[in-house]
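Practice problem 4.
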């Protein structure tokens, strides 16, 4: 069916150690929400719950619900639960909230969701009147070095047969394409803009941690256990060649899409 999607299992503890740039983007996004303290917020793709907990700290008279499809992420998030903060194992594609939230928030997640038309129908239903959408996720041009290397790995003779039925797990649209989609969804005050968030990893180890959690995870699911190590080692060594600078840091392109919109009557 059109909505059948493959989901991936992540290690929430390892992700927490490898996600510095996602945390930076998210903290900036939370600041921009200008929360008054009494809102109800839905965090789509809460991961290990670090940002969700930051939001909860700004809501003394409100609450936040963080959802994620990965049990590993939810397991890492659950210890952060408190009176105004709860976490739910839920696929974004299966959202079933009705007029419960003032804000729908998502940071560095929605490139994992393929059907964004459906997403906006579900989010629109989950929001109250005058509710706000504020999303940030990967755009066209993101991780160009990683994608170059992963294509090389997948086409190598020893691995190519495993990827015969490979379907790209990500949706990374252009700004213009995405603005048209959001505007057609029924939301108002729509603003969509791109952001160049290219970054240097401090060293190869930091870059490799980011490859391991979460970037290479979808590809390893296609490779038999006895070959996973070899596939990963090829990707890691080629990525170091492609990204390492003279000063030892590793450079990768990160292109982001930002979305702001409102739900009105």
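Answer key:
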């Amino acid at each position: 069916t059109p909505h059948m999607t493959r989901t991936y299992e992540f290690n929430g503890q390892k992700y927490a150690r490898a996600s510095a740039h996602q945390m930076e983007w998210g903290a900036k996004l939370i600041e921009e929400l200008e929360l008054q303290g009494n809102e109800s917020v839905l965090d789509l793709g809460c991961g290990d719950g670090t940002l969700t907990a930051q939001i909860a700290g700004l809501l003394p008279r409100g609450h936040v619900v963080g959802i994620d499809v990965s049990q590993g992420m939810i397991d890492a998030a659950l210890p952060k639960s408190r009176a105004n903060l709860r976490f739910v194992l839920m696929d974004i594609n299966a959202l079933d909230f009705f007029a419960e939230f003032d804000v729908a928030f998502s940071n560095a997640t929605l490139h994992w969701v393929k059907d964004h038309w459906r997403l906006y129908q579900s989010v629109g239903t989950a929001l109250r009147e005058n509710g706000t959408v504020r999303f940030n996720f990967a755009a066209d041009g993101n991780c160009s070095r990683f994608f170059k290397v992963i294509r090389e790995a997948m086409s190598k003779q020893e691995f190519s047969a495993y990827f015969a039925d490979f379907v790209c797990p990500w949706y990374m649209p252009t700004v213009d394409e995405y603005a048209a989609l959001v505007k057609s969804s029924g939301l108002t005050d729509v603003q969509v803009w791109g952001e160049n968030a290219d970054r240097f990893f401090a060293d190869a180890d930091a870059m490799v941690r980011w490859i391991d959690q979460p970037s290479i995870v979808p590809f390893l699911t296609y490779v038999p256990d006895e070959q996973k190590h070899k596939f990963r080692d090829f990707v890691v060594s080629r990525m170091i060649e492609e990204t390492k600078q003279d000063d030892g840091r590793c450079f990768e392109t990160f292109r982001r899409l930002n979305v702001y919109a409102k739900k009105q009557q």
